[in-house]
Structures are given as structure tokens and as C-alpha cells.
Amino acid sequence: MTIRLDHHCFNYLVENGIFFITLCDSSYPRKLAFHYLQDLHQEFEKFDNSLIEKITRPYSFVKFDSIIGNIRKRYIDTRTQANLSKLSANRKQELDIVTKHVSEILECCRQNSDQIPERILTGTPPTPSSIWGSPRLQVIALKWTPITIIVVVAVVLLWASFILTENFIISSL
């Protein structure tokens, strides 16, 4: 599948539980991008499956960086003879590549899911939330405001009574 975003395309392929993805300029041939992803998949098939199954984090694939780099070098220039032959070969059997624009994907999500916040669907950046707008702070305020008011009133009354009794003692002397 290809996802277009402005002047770039995300091309991805999922094979055997591994997600192969590439980010290309929109002018880069999709067919060549998918040949690149298929070559990556073929190289990963050569490795022991137990080694690949042990990988739990994305950065664990750094071990395969040299292999990925070698394949990438072959596909950087679209004008090489090998790449041109891949583009012209099997013209009748075009790859069935689904292409969607990001706005189409968001529209599908908008129709199918009510769980995505509206700000993500509309593409508006999130408003900076302050500490005063947090729901947790509202709960704390509702719980402690009456107690705080009672304590403040009690302290003011004690202070006032202390001042009055002190003034009464001073005036009686």
C-alpha cells in the first residue's frame, strides 16, 4: 500500500509478521519502491526465523543495517540499467498497489471510529493543555475546596478572637 503525504509517499509491505516501510519522494516510481521492499523481504527470509522472532524492538534491526544499506544503494538511482529493466519488465502485470492520500485515510477513520479524538481527525494541532484544565485537578479542587474554606474561616475567627481578647486585656489594664 502507498500513502501519499504532500510530496512524499510511504510505501509499505507486510510479510510474515514483518512490516517493511520506505519513505520516498512522490516522484520516485512506486513499482521500484515495492521491488526494493520485496528485495528486503527476500533478504530477511534468508535469516533464521528464530533470530527474527526474538526481535521485539524496532532498533534491533540495526544488526541488519549493512544488508539494508547494500539493497538501498541499488535503488537510489532510478536511471541505472537494472532499475530501468525492473520498471519496464512485465508492463502488463502491474503490481496491484493500493494508493491512498492521507486525507482519504482520515476520512475512513472518521466514518468508522468514534474513538479517535476530534483534533486528530480534523488535523488541528492540540491546544496546549494547562495544569488548570486537567480533570484530576478538578477532582482535587472539588474535594478540598470546602475543607480549605472551613479551615481558612476557622483560622480567621481564631485570629480575630485572639486580637479582640488581646485588645480587651490591654484596655482593661
From TrEMBL:
**What is the species listed in this Swiss-Prot or TrEMBL entry?**
Carya illinoinensis (Pecan)
Classify the main location: endoplasmic reticulum
Write down a Pfam family by its short name: Longin
**Longin domain boundaries:** 1-68
Q: How does it sit in the membrane?
A: Single-pass type IV membrane protein
Report the leader peptide range.
Answer: none
The record's subcellular locations are: Endoplasmic reticulum membrane; Golgi apparatus membrane
**Molecular function via GO:** SNAP receptor activity
The highest taxon in the source lineage is: Eukaryota
Q: Does the keyword Coiled coil apply?
A: yes
InterPro entries listed in its UniProt record: Longin-like_dom_sf (IPR011012), Longin_dom (IPR010908), Sec22 (IPR044565)
What SUPFAM superfamilies does UniProt report for this protein, alphabetically? SNARE-like
Entry's Gene Ontology cellular component terms = endoplasmic reticulum membrane; Golgi membrane
Similarity field: Belongs to the synaptobrevin family.
The name of this protein is Longin domain-containing protein
What keywords were assigned to this record?
Coiled coil, Membrane, Protein transport, Transmembrane, Transmembrane helix, Transport
Q: Where are the transmembrane segments?
A: 144-164
A Gene Ontology biological process noted in the UniProt record is: endoplasmic reticulum to Golgi vesicle-mediated transport
